[in-house]
């Protein structure tokens, strides 16, 4: 056997699989584990969306890779209502949920710009930004946070800027909930000739002011990425979209068409209905804000840590000194599974992320186990 052959790529352990050893602690308690680790919505989507999924009659034919006209018109109308901007239909396209878009984007851009090899992304962030770069054979270069949240764009070296395929921004941030200066990111990208991709899938859950999109600062050189997964409790449909710069969007549409990346037709029909309805989103906002408040009170009282509400998103993010130790203790005593912060980069090792995506009674159960009421009383 030739032992000098270099090893190929070996995927690292999937972050959430590393929590499996804590699950028996919760399973041993009455009521079982309360999973607050993954941001999987638990509340029902609107009935009209389910009806559209079942009655579109689109399951027999191949759906358009860019998205059906009804879906893209619904997307354009939503962006106009939500942000007061108009994006031409030709600059809007569907994707199979946004995770696959994030994970495959660097390889498509590398083909377009082979002289560039660097993906810039937030230092504390959703892990797929980094993994997408790795899978494309690119350099993954984290950008540190600014003191007030968002990215410290001044920390990007001239060499990294010259080599950059793209810059990722994420606002509201997963996991921190911080809001970024999207206008500054757009300006930086244009001045350096670097496309800026703005992951805005939590924008409907912005608590500090109104929701913002990078497209408010013009479409040139920027692409916004959105999803119905969080907004409408439709993570299982796998429907997202991207919109912005005409040349970039058109390039990606053509590449993705060749690969056969198509959102199933019934899912597109259902997403079009979901994006046309804002009423259910208003109700969901109230639910998440209430759960954030209750969970923050419970954990603050139990742990002695002053846990603040985020500026956006449905995650609590706080300094626990040792994220893994806190997660294990909470699993043992409260039967709850939460994410240690190093899932989101080395800069989050002291932190913990708590997703308030369980029903109210399950969150209350955690409080009961910890001896804390929903108002933080013992």
Automatic annotation (TrEMBL):
Q: Name one Pfam family in it.
A: Aminotran_1_2
Q: Which cofactor does this sequence's record say it needs?
A: pyridoxal 5'-phosphate
- What are the entry keywords? Aminotransferase, Transferase
Q: Which residues form the Aminotransferase class I/classII large domain?
A: 33-358
One annotated GO molecular function: transaminase activity
Q: Which PANTHER family does this chain map to?
A: AMINO ACID AMINOTRANSFERASE (PTHR42832), L-GLUTAMINE--4-(METHYLSULFANYL)-2-OXOBUTANOATE AMINOTRANSFERASE (PTHR42832:SF3)
Name of this protein: Unannotated protein
Please give the organism: freshwater metagenome
